[in-house]
Structures are given as structure tokens and as C-alpha cells.
Amino acid sequence: MSELPQIVKITKVQRETGEHHTLFFNFKAEAAPGQFLMVWIPGVDEKPISLSKISKEELAITVQCKGSWSKRVCGFESGTKIGVRGPYGNGFSTEGVKKAIIVAGGCGSAPLMPLVEKCLVEGIETKFILGAQNAKKLLFKKELIEKLGDNLYITTDDGSEGTKGFTTQTLEELLGKEKPDCVYSCGPEIMMKGVLDICQKKKIKSQLSLERYMRCGFGVCGQCVMDDLMVCKDGPVFSGKTLSESAEFGKLTRLKSGKEVSLKEFGDWRQC
Amino acid sequence: MLETDFCGLKMKNPTVLASGVMGCNAALLKRVAREGAGAVTMKSIGPKEKEGHKNPTVLEWEHGLINAVGLPTAGYKNAEKEFKELEKCKSPVIASIYGSSIEEFTEVAEGIIGFEPAMIEINISCPNTKREGQIFGTSPEVAAEVVKAVAEVCGKIPIMPKLTPQANNIAAVAAACEQAGANAICAINTLGPGMVIDADARKPVLANKFGGVSGPAIKPIALRCVYQIYEAVSVPILGLGGISNGRDAIEMAMAGATAIGVGSATFYRGIEAFKLISDEMKTWMKEQGVKSIKEIVGAAHD
Ligand SMILES: Cc1cc2nc3c(=O)[nH]c(=O)nc-3n(C[C@H](O)[C@H](O)[C@H](O)COP(=O)(O)O)c2cc1C
């Protein structure tokens, strides 16, 4: 058995928001929430993408039609072939968790959807804070309402839906009233830095899913390094404890060349 | 038992992290040293910042890895912070340099000697660094020219050209390098280039189409190269290519390697590979009554 990409056919394309598409395909793999696949478009590029749906029959990824690679993927219909390898990375752990708060910003809700599923199956009391720039960009809102009802909290930067403001403000409010066993988060790193700071202050455990530019996906090339950790293999999910000791989290990332730059300089590097 | 003196580098064991594997930043190199590597090699540093190739760049096929990362580098001008942080590394640090002309090799060497790496590896074997379509390390004359030029700027820091198995006569290349001032020889870089095609996609998988082959598949070739080099030079050899376990490492030592590089094995065995390989070497040595690894270097020769 090799780890070369396997060509799979897309079985279904689901339009989520105007700019997010979910692609379903059959790929037999033992996958855990928070893990990712390296997704190859033959002749174009290969990128790490989190699994947004995990079931026995099929897997799915959700992409934002933003960069040139993603725009290409957003044009795909059922029947289109893509290459996938993985799943890679560690995934989220729910061990010992009875009560959870999940915080998603922008396209960060993608890897958190299988986690919601797992929490519900395991009977974990789950609250979900979903944030986006505006109402149109709230990814997986409908599904989350169906699954969580009143336990879904929506925030938008412009107030076009839910509470006007940031997810971190809602998190702070919730943590004023209750004490979950774990806060899970994925989204822009600046937001996650805020989530981490709040959790550290309140002494609540957290698990955050990170992203760095990757090449191999399996812990050899060292491209996706953050401090002495390889995001592809030691992560992409890290504990709040690990990240609170990090010199780079929330501050630095690396370009394809390996050159260190500030997150600001890198701009909006997070591509779904 | 495994203590090794390689060109003045004091190593707790002969394993060395191969260049380009986990070597992008100081913190991870230090972790590899903590995890048991006797010495660590930084990813090859070039003259100017370079992005490298598009993905896919690194793949595992059935019998090893294949890569065309394309020598991404922040460039020597951006290397200061990593070098400074590496001063606290538990194991000796080998810097690796590349260029696409003799001038570029010396420019990079000059740019980093101030940071005093324990040794400088000269990558004249990467398919990405060529002169007139030829990899520097395929010709004894050209290889010697590079080594001579770099030796002139490196002063007391030992230099070690890294050779390619593509050379028609790798022993002749090694001998020419020794003559030109090399203090050690490193062999081998990846083999090939090779290629992987996906039948269903009807396309090459690596974005660069071709890439260097490493891992278990190239071990017999690496052993043959080191064996031939050992007969041709008197400087010590860093032998690598497909070394995955203690027995492989022992065999590499017997071919003539004083230090033993480990790269692709980290895919199969993780960052623990260095400790595992060292422990397995010790087990074998105890069974065989070998007291020091020095006793077996070159043992396979008549
Ligand atoms: C992903 C990857 C990147 C590499 N990058 C470099 C590099 O930058 N410079 C270099 O001299 N060799 C590089 N190599 C070659 C290795 O250092 C080594 O010579 C080769 O892989 C054979 O050893 P192995 O079979 O133990 O991997 C790279 C190898 C791999 C797998």
C-alpha cells in the first residue's frame, strides 16, 4: 500500500453559501473529526483540506471559491475526478468531555462539523458559536440550526444576522455563565488567538485547529513547522496549553520559501 | 559505543538528519537533536529567496519517497535568526548550501561562515542545481572547481560536498573533491530523477513531473556508492540513502561510512527514527561483541 493519491469521482456537489461548495466522494478511510486530506487536481495543484463530512459511505470537503485552485474546484460537478490521499493529522479529542463550546469563524466551521456530529453521538452538551463577516457567509448555518437549535449562537461583523460583533465576545459571555470541559475552535488565527486568551484566563481547556502552508502532509518535509511542531503531523489540532507556550502562534507563519513573516503580512492566508 | 568523531564533530551516535528533511527552522532541528540525532543538517540554503515547486512535491510510493520540492529557501540573507537559535542545539549543526554557479556557491558560503556552523555541506547533487544542464556533481572537474572555490572562503570550517548517484564514476568525483580540499564526502543525494504517473488521472503526479527518489528503494545503490568512495578517498564519509533501521546503518558503516544520514526513514518511523536506529545498532553490536562502531567502519572491504 502506498500513500499516492487515489482518484475518486465526486458524487455530489452541495452549494452552501454563495462562495462555499461541499464536494462528496467515496473514499474508504478511517477518519476522525479534524483530520484532513491532501486534495490533488491533476495538473493543477494539491492542497490540504479538512474533512467536513465523515460517514461510513462517503467523505466530503468544503472549499471556498477564492484562490485559483479553489475557484477551479468550485466549478466541479458530480462525476469530476480528483485525487485524494490521507487522512492526515491528529484530529480533535473528546476524551473526558461532557460539555463543549465550539467556536467557528469564517470557513472554520468545515472541520468542526464532524466534531458536532461526534459530540451529539457521544451525548456531549454542545454549544456552537458561528461567526462570519455577514449573513451571507455563515457556513453550515441551516445544518447547525437543525442539529443544535437554541444552542447555536450567531455573530456577524456587520450585524446583518445574529449578534453584531465577534465570536470571542459571545464566547466571553457564555463563559461568564458556564464552565465547559473544552472549547474547540477553528477560523482565522487572530480569532483563535482571542479564543485561546479567553480560555487561558478562565482556565478552561481548549483545542484549536491550525493551518500552515504544507507540502508532504506526513511529517517529513518540515514546511508547515510552527515552533518545533509540524502542523501536518503533530497537529493540525493543538491544545491550548501547547499554543500558550508557542512563540509563533498568533504571530508568525512561513511563506512557501520558508521565510518567516508576520500573520498580518501574510494577509488572509487561510484558504478553505 | 556509538560515540563518533566525524571530521571533528563530536557526535553521541553516528546518525545525522539528512538535509531537506524537517530542517526548515531552528526549533524543529533542535527537537530532532533532542530526539536522538547525533548531528543535524539544515535544509539547503540558496543565494536568493525561492518558493520551490507547486504541489504535489513529496509523495510516498511503494518502496520509498519521491520529491521535487524545488529547493525552496528563504535565502542566506534571511538565515541569521535560525543560525542564532541553533547555537543552543544539543548536537552539531551542519549547514547545507547550494547555488547555480560557482559564484553563487561562494556567495552563500561567505554569507553563512560568520554563523560558524560545525560543517558546511555543499549540495552539488540536486537535480535543481545545474550548469549547462549538468548537475555539478556528475563531473569530477566541475565538482572539484566548486569545492576549491568554497574551500577558499570557508577557512577552518570543514566542508563536505554531497554527491549524486547520477555520476558515471562517483569514486572519481569523490577523489577529485578530496584533492580540491574536501574534508569529508557525503553520499548520496536522491536517485533518478524518477516519475510517478497515475493511470486513472492519466497524468504525472508531481507538479514538476520528475523528482528525486529516496528511501528503501535506493539503499543498494547508496551502499555501492559509499563502498566505491571509501576505496578512493581517505577523508571520512557521511553515508545515506535508504537507511531505515539499525541493521541498515551497520551495513552502511561496513561500506565505509563514519556518519550515517537518515531522511526518508522519518516517514516510516517518525521523528523517533534516530533513537530507534541507534538502539538497534547497539543491540546488534552487543550480540556481535562489537565494542565501538569504529571497529566496523569499512568492514565490508577486502
Ligand atoms: C523531501 C526531501 C527533501 C530533500 N531536500 C534536500 C535538500 O534540500 N538538500 C539536499 O542536499 N538533499 C535533500 N534531500 C535528499 C536527502 O538529504 C537524502 O540525501 C536522500 O533523501 C537520501 O536519503 P534517504 O533515503 O535517507 O532519504 C531531500 C530529500 C527529501 C525526501
Please provide a written account of the structure.
The complex is a heterodimer of chains A (272) and B (302). With 272 residues, chain A is an alpha/beta fold. Chain A folds into 2 domains: 2-88, Elongation Factor Tu (Ef-tu), domain 3, CATH 2.40.30; 99-266, Nucleotide-binding domain of ferredoxin-NADP reductase (FNR) module (Rossmann fold, 3-Layer(aba) Sandwich), CATH 3.40.50. Chain A has 7 helices and 17 strands. Chain A has helices at 68-74, 109-121, 141-148, 167-177, 189-201, 240-244, 263-266, and strands spanning 6-15, 20-25, 36-41, 45-54, 59-64, 81-88, 99-105, 125-132, 152-156, 163-164, 182-186, 206-209, 225-226, 229-230, 237-239, 252-254, 260-262. Chain A has a 7-stranded mixed β-sheet, sandwiched between helices. Chain A has a 6-stranded antiparallel barrel with strand order 1-2-5-4-3-6. In chain A, strands 13-14 form a two-stranded antiparallel sheet. By secondary structure, chain B is of the alpha/beta class. Chain B has a single domain (4-51, 71-193, 212-296), classed as Aldolase class I (TIM Barrel, Alpha-Beta Barrel). In chain B, 33% of the residues lie in helices and 21% in strands. Chain B has helices spanning 26-34, 80-86, 102-113, 140-154, 170-180, 219-232, 246-255, 265-269, 273-288, and strands at 4-6, 9-11, 15-17, 39-41, 58-61, 64-67, 93-97, 119-123, 130-131, 134-135, 159-163, 185-187, 191-195, 197-198, 203-204, 210-214, 237-239, 259-262. In chain B, the strands form 5 sheets. Chain B has an 8-stranded parallel beta barrel with strand order 3-4-7-8-11-12-17-18, surrounded by 7 helices. In chain B, strands 5-6-16-13 form a 4-stranded antiparallel β-sheet, with no helix packed on it. In chain B, helix 5 packs across helix 6 and helix 7 (246-255) crosses helix 9. The longest helix of chain B is centred in the last third of the chain and has 16 residues, at 273-288. Chain B is globular and about 50 Å long. The mean pLDDT of chain B is 95. At the A-B interface, strand 4 and strand 14 of A face helix 1 and strand 5 of B.
